[in-house]
Amino acid sequence: MHQKTPLSSSGTPAELFMGYVDQFSYRKDRSDRAMALTNFTFFAGAGFSKAWDARAPIGCELFTLDTRLIESVAEAGTLMRMFGLNASEEIDPDTLRQIVYQLDMYDRFPDVRPRYLDEQNLRMFRGVLRAAVVDRYDKFTRLNYFDESVGGFPLKSQTTCQRDILNFFRHLRFGPAAEDCPTEGVRTHFITTNYDYVIETILDNLTSEKKSLFFNTYRGFTPTQVLGSRSFAPVHEHWRVQHLLKINGGFEILRRGSGYVLDYSERDPGAIMADPPIVTLASREQDYSDPYFKMVFPKVVRLMRDTTVLVIVGYSLPSDDALIRFFLRQFAEEPEDGLGKVIFYLGPGNDEDKRKIIAEVFPAMERMRAPHLVPYDGGFDEFARECLQHLGARNQAPGLPDAPASQA
Predict the structure, then answer these.
(1) What residue ranges do the domains of the chain occupy?
(2) Which residue among 35, 63, 169, 333 sits deepest, i.e. has the most Cβ atoms within 10 Å of its Cβ?
(3) How high is the pLDDT of residue 189?
(4) What distance in Å separates the CA atoms of residue 137 and residue 132, rounded to the nearest whole number?
(5) Pairing mode, strands 307-313 and 259-262
(6) CA neighbours closer than 13 Å in the CB half-sphere of residue 341
(7) How far apart are CA 282 and CA 49, in angstroms?
(8) What is the pLDDT of residue 162?
């Protein structure tokens, strides 16, 4: 058992990160003793998808909606009377927040519903809003739907950024070894606010073993079906599993009775309206009442507590996003919990601003110097590229402490 000690700040962020990867990695066939498994968790916001595909929508872009689909369930006059919308206008993010908030209140308090709103057309209204969000995403850059002909998420022409990101995660999983002999020790997990299939595409293209993604990825719940079949592992083996936890839901998550399925196929707007995915929409008061979130949120908390290296990618952590900050706080609930843990905070902006934001989540961080913060001013693709430049150096970065006891 190693003593947890404050982590060194010497070296560039990329040098430090690759030093930790080397420190916590090992090969089973070269070790004569049991070794700890160490969780490296990537907390991915919209900037993660933007690094993968420059066309991906970020911020308010995804929640500026066309009223064309909405008029299929509500007449233009109704939209004007209820929400002040003209038929020719787009729904801007602030208006969408107000609409979703009103729908939530109508669901929660039936007595305040207008004369002609009921359980059924409220459900239709929510379905069309979700269909409009999918449509909006596809207008920026198409979702990378599962391709039955290749048995996976296709990636035919990789950009330089995508190649760097793939090679970065390939090294985390396999190290310098071949794909059939992965390196142990480092466990890569994902928590994301995104609805899209970027992370699935990355994981699916790390190896030629196409069953690996669904067999070895835990979603925080056990789907009753994946792509129409049950060809997945209902109960996972701890040593080989990665987490992919979508805290705002995903375009592929569909409800079936009391359970859920994963459907990555392309569906037309009518099908989406009739069978909408589990996603939270922008609102003045976020609604996480669906049982999906009650299953996934405890897994997010457990994973955060069991993580040693946390990488926050492309998420600005606005002060009004209290739930996300609550989840991050679980990484080190008390200052002592942060000893021997490190946060890499990636994204455009100066170091001092990042430090202030993280200090709001961990008030004792500056006094206790725990968890240790490594800010990085740049996109994830740039960070991945810089990390790859250090693959030739097999020694740990100067000043790295002994590995703390991991709780993976």
Answers:
(1) 13-55+144-388, 59-140
(2) 63
(3) 97
(4) 9
(5) unpaired
(6) 31
(7) 18
(8) 96
pLDDT of residue 207: 79
What topology does CATH give the domain 13-55+144-388? Rossmann fold (3.40.50)
Rounded mean pLDDT of the chain? 85
Comparing CA positions, the residue from 326, 308, 305 lying closest to residue 317 is 326
User: If we measure between CA atoms, which residue out of 387, 396, 367, 357 comes closest to residue 45?
Assistant: 357
- Measuring CA to CA, which residue among 317, 330, 303, 328 is closest to residue 46? 317
Treating both helix axes as pointing N-terminal to C-terminal, what angle do 380-388 and 13-24 enclose, rounded to 10 degrees? 60
Tokens 């990101």 appear where? 165
